[in-house]
Amino acid sequence: MSQTNSSINEIIKPENLVYKKPSVLNDNPMHYCPGCSHGVVHKLLAEIIGEMDIQEDVIGIAPVGCAVFAYKYLDIDFQQAAHGRAPALATAIKRLMPEKYVFTYQGDGDLAAIGTSETIHACNRGENIVIIYINNGIYGMTGGQMAPTTIEGMKSSTCPFGRDISLNGYPLNITDLLVRLEGTRYVTRQSVHTSAAVRKTKKAIQKAFVYSMEGKGTSIVEIVSTCNSGWKMTPEGANDWMVENMFPVYSIGDLKDI
Amino acid sequence: MSEEIELMKGNEAIAQAAIRCGCDGYFGYPITPQSEILETLMAEQPWKTTGMVVMQVESEIAAINMVYGGAGCGKKVMTSSSSPGISLKQEGISYIAGAELPCLVVNVMRGGPGLGTIQPSQSDYFQAVKGGGHGDYNMIVLAPASVQEMADFTVLGFDLAFNYLNPVMILADGVIGQMMEKIVLPPFSPRKTAEEIKKLYPWATYGKSKDRKPNVISSLEIDSVEMEQRNLKFQRKFQLMEENEIRYEEFETTDAEYILVAFGSTARICQKSVEIAREQGIKLGLIRPITLWPFPTPILYQYTSKVKHFFSIEMNAGQMVEDIRLAVNGKAKVDFYGRLGGIVPSPIEVVEFVKSKIA
Q1: Which of A62, A96, A121 sits opposite B73 (nearest CB)?
Q2: Domain, as residue range, for B331
Q3: Residue B309 lies in a domain
Q4: Position B203 in a domain
Q5: How confident is the model at residue B16 (pLDDT cuts 50, 70, 90)?
Q6: CA of B88 to nearest chain A CA: how many angstroms apart?
Q7: What torsion do the CA atoms of B216, B217, B219, B224 make, to the nearest 10 degrees?
Q8: Which of B27, B144, B189, B264 has the lowest tally of Cβ within 10 angstroms?
Q9: Domain total for chain B?
Q10: What pLDDT digit, counting tens, does each position of A201-236 carry?
């Protein structure tokens, strides 16, 4: 039974209020660092796929980057793409099997550096796919190098004195670019640093999945995230730093919803 | 019903054969001299008849990765390009080999390096048969020498790709792609249904059904011990290909004292060279490797018992000649003659070269 259709009375029954691991999330221990946002987003995806009862009809595309192993944690069919090419895979899969839900899960290096072309063209064609975009401003998997989204002054192993615009150029706000493409239907920027934010992100991803079946274009959910290991901060300190420094550059909220 | 004979270009034959053999998807990017493949498919609009998806996409890189995505779903998918575009696809081909997916890649070669020329060439031999992309992998490379073979190898290429779960390449050149000949197209066979794909390709990602674990398409294995095992499995597969898939053609070899080895359009030219040489009393023969990988190594070696002089004729600076030398293993002399940069050798100049070496 779909939980989203349940009545309020059904939901607040004590036996339904038990917090448990979503069944689509398996028992493999996650490789993500404590405090990393990936785990939360994975859980949200598992919840949504379970609640929408689409486990048999969904194909995920894992990127290159920390989420390369996303397929180890979600009990759904998965393809692992070459760096940046997830939207190309998703395009073909959705075109060949339009009745399936197809989503990519990509980081900022994957989506906004090496995969810029695939991202922009999939969105411009209005492919009916969902793009989950984790923006933590750093290359986590390779050890904390500068990303296209690293903000001005932010330190990384390849900009150890902070991102210098004259040397490294400006941070790329690719989501704002995608808003302007005719092919995108839903573009939103969310975060998962508080319970309230997690709930909003869940709603956004859910909406994106529903939209992907309506044939009206691409849905992108950017999630401004923390990489406390790469940023060399505590999980809590990373959350605070993100709110203070990243949110002014990457403003939270819906950017397009038609 | 009698066979339908049609006149068309090699590139058009590939497109028509793809539609007819139940291809599910083509993804490509324009580049001379192979754009007629995409153009023909777009004009035929097979999505209205067989349901085949045809897409002109943003780059050769996107195209090969779409092929990866489609192949991962158990679909019969292909891409085509010419030399510079094939270079761009190499990462994707390596991933497809690493993830053990079936697909067809067509290279209608032009002269390189770099942007080079749009004229025909065979200078991507090394790239096609020695890997091209990173890592230890091979793929079956089919070298058509006629428009008929462009169509036939499209059907055969897909069959081999699915038999071995490995990419297959058609390595043609601008001559074969552009020239028109009479051909008989393959009969129509329907695309596989979703149910057939589930049954035939239980590894495919079409959505996890309740009765199985998730299917994962990936070339990644962080554990070196596992990765070595995976590589050894690939090597066993490549060995099977070497044992079972060698294809070649012989012409006037029975009494030959000298043998030309040539593939693709060069083999057509060399056929004429053999005729001219024989008119002049030179017992010349021709072996045409049809599979460039696996190379007909054992066949050439067998010939060394009676033939002591081989000639590799290529439209490049000497690439296949290395495989011929490995094949004859010092038991025969091997000379090379090639033209470069889009120049096609004439039958006479091949004969003159042979004469200069046997005099």
Answers
A1: A96
A2: 248-358
A3: yes
A4: no
A5: very high
A6: 13
A7: 20
A8: B189
A9: 2
A10: 999 999 999 999 999 999 999 999 999 999 999 999
